[in-house]
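Key idea: predict the complex, not the pieces.
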Amino acid sequence: MAPAEKKVISFTVNREPIEVAVPVTRYLVDVLREDLSMMGTKRACDQGVCGTCSVILNGKLVSSCLTLAVRADGAEIETIEGMGSLEEGLHPLQASFASHGATQCGYCTPGMIISARALLDENPDPTEEEIKDWLTGNLCRCTGYQKIIEAIRAVAEGRTEPDPPIEVEIVKAYEG
Amino acid sequence: MAEAKDTGGYVVGSNQTFLDAPEKASGSAVYLDDLQMAGALVGRALRSEHVHARIVSVDAKEARKVDGVVAILTGEDLPGHPRASTHPRAMPIIAWDRVMYAGDVVALIAAETAEAAEEAVGKIRVKYEPLPVVVDPEESMAKGAPQLWEGGNLLNQAKIRKGNAEEGFRSADIIIENEYRTQSVDHLYLEVESGFAAPLPDGGFQIWNPTQQPFPVRQNVARVLGLKSDSAIRFIQTLPGGGFGGKNEASIEISVRAALLAHAAQRPVKLVYSREESLISSSKRHGTIIRSRTGATKDGRLVAAEVEIYLDKGAYSASGGDTPPAFKRATYHAVGPYDVPNVHVDVYCVHTNHPYGGQMRGPGVPQVHFACEQQMDQIAEALEMDPIELRRINGLKVGSRTSANQYLPESVGLLKTLGKVEEASGWLKRNGSSRREADGRLRGFGVASCMYGTGNAYSPAEAHVHLTRSGKIRLAAGVVDFGQGSKTVLSQIAAEAMSVPFGEFEVGVVDSQIDPFGGTSSSSRVTMQGGKAVYLAAIKAREELLRLGGHLLEVDPEDLDISNGVVQSKSHPETKITLSEIAGKFVADEMKQIGAADHIPPPAVMDKETGLGEPYEVYGFGTQAAEVLVDPDTGEIEVVGVWASHDVGKAISPMGVHQQIDGGVYMGLGFCLMEEIVQQEGRMHNPDMHGYLIPTVEDIPDRLETSIVEEHYSNGPYGAKGVGEQVTCPTAAAIANAVYDATGVRFQRLPLSPDRVAMAIAGKKN
Ligand code: FES
Ligand code: FES
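Result:
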């Protein structure tokens, strides 16, 4: 097999300029994960079905598993790593997902949050229906989506905590 | 880190943000494929071209010449032809004389790059001699069927004989008899199977895997590699990106394969299956054929139930060996959560050339509930009785006996779940049945209940509590949190028992150098069985903190108490010491063990002849109602509402329980409406995510109302049982009953895909 032709491309990821030589057949998800070691962006289908590889490219939500890296030449890319971090503080969407229990195994979560971010950028106060319409390209196998929708609605309402708080019944548990 | 919530001192029963949720939401959580290591090779597997064939020869000469290929293993290279477990019918790590399903591995490759591995795969020449294929479990038992295993295709059979079924049927006023079929489905965790292995300088190996059962992985890798002791393997768990039962057996086979490659290459190897490989090769929820006969008297009392079940075991035996969890559970849940005096159950677990049946969220139980809960619906209809009322009359309660004749002395919340669902769904006011909406769609309501044997009999768990140098508490319970939140729930249990704030707790991933054997994360056992070990260890840790504190304060520990993480004198409250002060004095290393305990759940006491006894120590119960709209022309079903209520003993984390119900209903909905491994003569037609459909956000009900019933269990920590699996068991039957209510057509075969539904409705009209 002849190695694919390489091309040097430059773009920004979370505002940081990057220059990298990539085979013209390489997908953006591989460049992010393998070449740049940015592991926040996941992959689960390689077919554009699941949304775990979602990133924002020039303001638009794309599946990085279907985007050839060379197409990102000159682009501005945003990934989950650019939204917030444990050290510097979470983005409200990240905090809201955590406190609403909108993440279980967590594998869909970065893609979900990036997708939700793109939604709120476009429509800061989406209805439940609009959230559902938007998220059809992001699959989650654990949560049943309910708490994901609630977490996004909360941020639209300027909260990151559940409201009303999820039913809590504090009784002194009996011994053992 | 999220702030721990102030719950007035009580942690059990409060909602705490899951310990690892902020990390997951930030994108910094590390999954197996996120591990990168200098010098690591890429692993690849060559899969069978046939469903059933004799292997004539495997020629890897050309493949070995490919630039960048470091190691190639074929079946002949593995002395003793190891299997994934010691069971004689377990999957071969590399097939050598025969392939028995399309997922069999014929060769393994380790190469410098994915491209080189890919090229090498294409250059391995395998000659096969195709053999006849059998795919139906019932046909597989018939005379003349292709023999997959010496000794016959039947892996095992079980029965229950309680009372006298024939006499029971004679006393019945009505008898309902049907055949049901459930399909094979995949876990479809978003993270595919993946494994990492690296040789250690001392001849051992380090293994990383997102498994649900760390210690069996370690054991089997050590066994296949011929290492003297398990401790030559250091096992470190990575976060599983979903499991649902599938990352039990699959994690063993992939870890062994990665380790064999690492051994051959003497380099680290990462092996990650493609989605297609995952779908073709991984375990499936057993497909079933279920024949049910149920008798009742006019006043709605069940008098007899006869059930015959065939489970499609696929090519190989997996977890449980001769007694797979799905086989045992199908047997003991076959008649549902009801008090039936006369029971006759026969279950056959039969090999075919399909992917092997494994554990999937409630192994065997969603299938049998699909049958028995539709039987109940038909009895209610025949007797013109409300389906909830019929369940109330027959439902198990404290003092009842199960189909195994097991006496239930406590913790039976079925009737309460029925009541909650009846009320929440407005069941009695529903009167919308079979109503045609303005858009031509038909509206219907259905209900189904379930039971679930919680945990595994005689499944020991051990837990350790450590004090870290900075004065935090680190739990080591040896069980995997695969998203269900066990790190959090176990910490809540320990926090409550120790009177130490939840925010002081840390739990890592399972590491065989730190963690004791906690058992597997399966059978909804972690909260109840792992949690009980944690509770016992925490009680000891509390005593140890009092002892150490007493030492430093020069106070008799009898006079000390812990409150809010501070050790304090009862008689002189100003005399006190913090955990970090205690740690400063006594923790020289990274951490110090301050409490350890194990919990050994009761064994299953069973009578071999009759199948009667105590298969599980306690049961979870639940009820779900569904409201649907069915388009009679397109056959499309919209589930507009689900009301679900489950008895979990005690909700340590109510939020966690609600999360489990949400996810369980979601999976049940997929099982009912769309999910199916479509196969023809053992070949899969939909081995990708375009073809294998799971519910999207558009498919979930607009209304999902979940509620919790708490019937405390005296041998569970703070009364807790379990929740993870029961929540998906009644959903398919509730929806199918609702579809019948809407259309008058009974669906006995899953899934209720639009084409099937439209055809059946059209057929009924003609
Ligand atoms: S991995 Fe890109 S959409 Fe699934
Ligand atoms: S949280 Fe597991 S896939 Fe969404």
